[in-house]
Amino acid sequence: MSFKGDKSLIVGLDIGTSKVVALVGEYAPGQPIELIGLGTHDSRGMRRGVIVDIESTVQSIQEAIKEAEASAGCEITSVYASISGSHIQCRNSQGITPIHEQEVTHRELQRVIDAAKAVPIGTDLKIIHAIPRDYTLDDSQEGIRNPLGMTGVRLEVNAHIVTAAASAAANITRCVEKCGLNVDELVFSVVASAEAVLTRDERDLGVLLVDMGAGTTDIAVFVNGAIAYSKSLPIAGEKVTEDIAHMLRTPTAEAEQIKVRYACAQASMAKAEETIQVPSVGDRQPRRVQRAALAQAVQARYEEIFEMVQAELRRSGFEQHVRAGMVLTGGAARMEGVADLAEEMLQMPVRVGIPQHATGNPVVMGNPVYATAVGLLLLGARNEGTGQRTGRVARGGGNGDGVLDRLKSWFQGNF
Fold it and tell me: Ranges for the SHS2 domain (predicted)?
């Protein structure tokens, strides 16, 4: 948490493949978070959500932070930072703990989550989230969302565990710290985006959230109000840009501009007589090509992405529970016709999700590009408000730190 005079601020740092976004929100318990500062900079040093160049990433973060500080009129000292990439893995786990004095307190909630985190993982992995799905009291009361204050003798939790490669997490933390900042928490991008774009009804009915960025397409399935499955796919908007550059034989930067200005996700949306001007490489003269040809190439790549999303949904085992359909967000979701294409392919209702649940800066609140950054603020405000950080980076089973943490928790709970 950072400070501006006597006011508490939350800072979200979305470190993406194409862009770094630093978003500052003013935090007051019981009130919507207000966006007061924004900084963005081209991301250099990231590939498919993973850092490949430390110094370039540090420079991008520094520029975004500097701009955010100037616009918010504050000094940023710590951030909630995003993490993504195909190294992200998920599983569902159970934990059980006895209830002291027959009333569930925050101590029991922490202990049962610690028990759920005691799962065997590789020494090269870290648990970044242990998110409660529901609780059970004494085998008689199931599907409890918040057991705090309830009476019983045994508490059980079903939790969603998200792990990340320890090296990937350490590199993000190192980049942030080289900018003179602390990391309050690392958050899986799609977990943050869900906070910003999903409604309570969608979570309860069952919804598929697809966060399409430049380097990764992150997926989360929500069932009965809680996350049940998550995944990061190493394909997204950057591949569309590469396809355009290859097909039109134009530089990548020009291909990105063409994608933003002229591309659409359905070939039927482009008229046969429409043409666009394409810059050539070197000193060659620009050329004109049919917009329909561009649309066909873009549609083919989006179809591939949605086929992968559909396969992942089926693999999750929760396909029949997604009654509210799909919510698309992220920069690649801004493509014209993308929601209609997804609806046609997956045979479910689809909408483009824009950030909600915050106030200020209409540019941010109306743009799916900022879903993760806004979600980081919302998660940060909630965690600071409760005094807990349930998604804090922690080692899981299979290493000494995890054992020591669990022993410490056991002693605190019993003595």
Answer: 10-197
Query: Distance between CA 221 and CA 219 in Å, rounded?
Result: 7
The Cβ of residue 292 has, within 10 Å, a number of other Cβ atoms equal to 17
Closest CA to 178 of 56, 358, 360: 56
Measured between alpha carbons, how far is 378 from 384 in angstroms, rounded to an integer? 10
pLDDT digits (tens, 9 = 90+) for 159-190: 999 999 999 999 999 999 999 999 999 999 99
Report long-range pairs for 402-406 (Cβ below 8 Å, ≥24 apart). Answer: 402/117, 402/118, 405/114, 406/114, 406/118
Query: How far, in Å, are 23, 77, 147 from residue 39 at the CA level?
Result: 6, 15, 40
Low-confidence ranges of the chain (pLDDT < 70): 1-7, 282-283, 385-415
The edge-to-edge listing of strands for the beta sheet with 154-165 is 89-98, 154-165, 125-137, 141-144
Half-sphere exposure of 371 (CA within 13 A, CB side): 30
Cα gap 203→306, rounded to integer Å: 21
Looking at residue 402, what is its pLDDT? Answer: 39
224 by Cβ neighbours in 10 Å (0-12 / 13-18 / 19+) ranks as: middle
How many residues are there in the chain? 415
For 234, which DSSP code? S
pLDDT at 1: 52
